[in-house]
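R.M. (postdoc): so does anyone remember the format we settled on? I'll just put the structure tokens first.
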């Protein structure tokens, strides 16, 4: 049976990813491991295609949030790349991870005990990263809980392989958090020293996310966890400014390139005479005889209703404004001033066409930079295609 065509699709650029990883590795240096963060469905890019692409350009590890994502990564992977779970796992998931050799964060004694038990069942040590509390005040180990975990490890040496010690910064992308992050770096060093004295001295130390890699080089240590930057986005405007101003390449091209594009096609055209409302309600009134293109993408596909009468798409290399309300499965865009539009023409909701581009931040947003949220909201059902 022939496959049905999707109403929209996401394209992932292999070339952009290759360049981003090459650039980031240059910034990080040769030694440290490059852990590619693919939680949130690889920031909306799709775990399966992204893992496939990333393995070909050389990453050492994938970091996911939960066991569901770990399984997706494992299925997509050649099996040669390490997988690390940073967040939620129930008892069964811990058992599964130990069995599969997947490493995971430990941030309480309960999980440590579960891991030790699982290691007993599988006759294979649990591979763990101890997440240390340094000031984010979210899931890190500290105080008596840390003591309990250390005791469990010391009494079960053959069942636990402590692969790493790690922490996460409370917003390295903003100078507003500088004092807090600086304290975290100091605190991390202190806890690492204390643990060393107690016989816990793993191979890997990791703290840096994209923003830390790009603005606080001393946080790189011997492994980094890079998310947003590998997809071609600066973590914040500040991070971008900091880098573009401080590097000698300030007048060259942006070293990070967007991997993702989201596209559809013109479904139909409609002539609407002057003085008529378009689509539901009365929010858009034609001021002249206008040509509308109907695009089969709506809020059910992740095209937010907040873009009603506000968003743009690209058709034939030109910007076309969304007119009227975004419907569940359709939008109307004004193509009156774009010559020769026909059904089947490519429509770009995110990405480039000709010399124009719709950025992810322009796509949703209006005031703040919320690339992370916008990307992860792209529905996982939209098909992803890898392009050169
Ligand atoms: C998401 C996440 C990262 C990656 O952050 P980016 O800003 O996308 O680079 C790193 N570490 C942890 C613990 C995370 O949750």
């Amino acid at each position: 049976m022939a496959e049905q065509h999707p109403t929209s699709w996401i394209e992932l650029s292999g070339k952009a990813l290759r360049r981003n990883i090459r650039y980031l590795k240059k910034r990080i240096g040769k030694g440290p491991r490059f852990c590619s963060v693919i939680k949130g469905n690889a920031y909306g890019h799709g775990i399966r295609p992204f893992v496939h692409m990333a393995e070909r350009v050389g990453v050492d590890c994938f970091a996911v949030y939960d066991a569901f994502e770990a399984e997706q990564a494992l299925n997509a992977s050649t099996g040669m790349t390490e997988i690390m779970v940073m967040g939620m796992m129930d008892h069964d998931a811990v058992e599964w991870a130990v069995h599969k050799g997947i490493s995971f964060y430990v941030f309480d004694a309960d999980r440590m005990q579960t891991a030790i038990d699982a290691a007993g069942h599988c006759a294979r040590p649990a591979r763990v990263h101890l997440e240390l509390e340094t000031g984010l005040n979210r899931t890190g180990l500290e105080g008596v809980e840390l003591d309990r975990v250390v005791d469990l490890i010391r009494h079960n040496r053959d069942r636990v392989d402590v692969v790493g010690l790690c922490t996460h910064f409370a917003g390295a992308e903003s100078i507003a958090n500088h004092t807090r992050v600086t304290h975290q770096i100091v605190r991390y060093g202190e806890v690492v020293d204390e643990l060393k004295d107690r016989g816990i001295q793993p191979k890997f130390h990791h703290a840096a996310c994209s923003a830390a890699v790009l603005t606080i080089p001393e946080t790189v240590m011997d492994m980094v966890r890079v998310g947003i930057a590998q997809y071609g986005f600066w973590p914040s405007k500040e991070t971008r400014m900091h880098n573009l101003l401080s590097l000698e390449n300030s007048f060259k091209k942006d070293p990070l390139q967007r991997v993702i594009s989201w596209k559809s096609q013109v479904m139909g055209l409609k002539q609407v005479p002057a003085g008529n409302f378009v689509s539901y309600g009365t929010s858009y009134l034609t001021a002249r005889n206008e040509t509308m293109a109907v695009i089969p993408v709506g809020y059910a596909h992740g095209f937010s209703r907040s873009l009603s009468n506000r968003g743009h798409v690209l058709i034939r290399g030109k910007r076309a404004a969304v007119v009227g309300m975004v419907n569940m499965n359709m939008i109307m865009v004004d193509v009156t001033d774009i010559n020769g539009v026909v059904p089947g023409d490519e429509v770009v909701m995110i990405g480039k066409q000709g010399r124009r581009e719709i950025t992810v931040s322009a796509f949703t947003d209006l005031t703040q930079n919320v690339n992370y949220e916008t990307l992860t909201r792209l529905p996982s059902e939209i098909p992803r295609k890898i392009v050169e």
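R.M.: ...and that's the designed sequence above, right after the tokens. Also worth knowing: Residues 37, 39, 86, 168, 209-211, 225-229, 235 surround pyridoxal-5'-phosphate (CB under 6 Å). The first helix runs from residue 14 to 28.
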